[in-house]
Amino acid sequence: MPVKMEMGEVGTSLMTTESKQTPIRPLNKFERLFQPCLGELVGTTFFVFIGCVSVIENVESAGRLQPALVHGLAVAIMVACMAEISGSHFNPPFTLAIFLCGGMEMNMVVPYLACQLVGGVLGAAMAKAMTSRENYAKAHGAAFDLLQSDGPIGGALFGEVAMTCLVTMVVLLGAVNAKTRSPLVPFMVGCTVIINVLAGGDVSGTCLNPARAFGPAIVSNYWTYHWVYWVGPIAGGLIAAALVRLLLGDHKIRLILK
User: Fold this and answer.
1) How far is residue 67's CA from residue 257's CA, in Å, rounded to a whole number?
2) Which residues cross the membrane (predicted)?
């Protein structure tokens, strides 16, 4: 049996590697266990760092365009760079959905989630160190401060569920599902983030990632309606996993109607 591609022993990469030659040796313990976790830590750190800075230093005339482009392009770049190291998840709902669809081993799920959350905190701390006190305080450290009353909670929660479901389906269909796997996954995921932020930024803030919400909340100690940015994205990721597992996946992934 030929040796699996490098990410096959850790988790599904968000970039296909079919055109590359398979490695001539199996992965060692560092490459199989520790390096992927470091990739998730470093990738999430820089994604959250750049994303937070784009919000804290947002030019008022740019509106949602500046954070939308920065978050989307940062995702695309980090996915392309880290795909062959960790699989480029950088988001707890992605990791859970990929695991549920058979794209990674169970023993890597908890380490990945821990590294993503720690990376979120480190990235938020880096953003605080870089930006001015005035701008940092005004933006609550790029924590999601849009929700100030119970009135818009329903719409914001639904938006987080629906938009995270969309971007997670792009990940699963583009990287996990063999029938639809595409080398354009970094571009696809980045563009999906951009259109989600442009569409829903004024409704929920468009988090889509608990690690992106958790880091700034820890560093700035801002927790108002923070639960929305956990419940919504996780629920959206699970719905996407269920859709792929039950209806949209290929013969290998789909559990019913085979």
Assistant:
1) 42
2) 33-56, 68-90, 152-176, 227-248
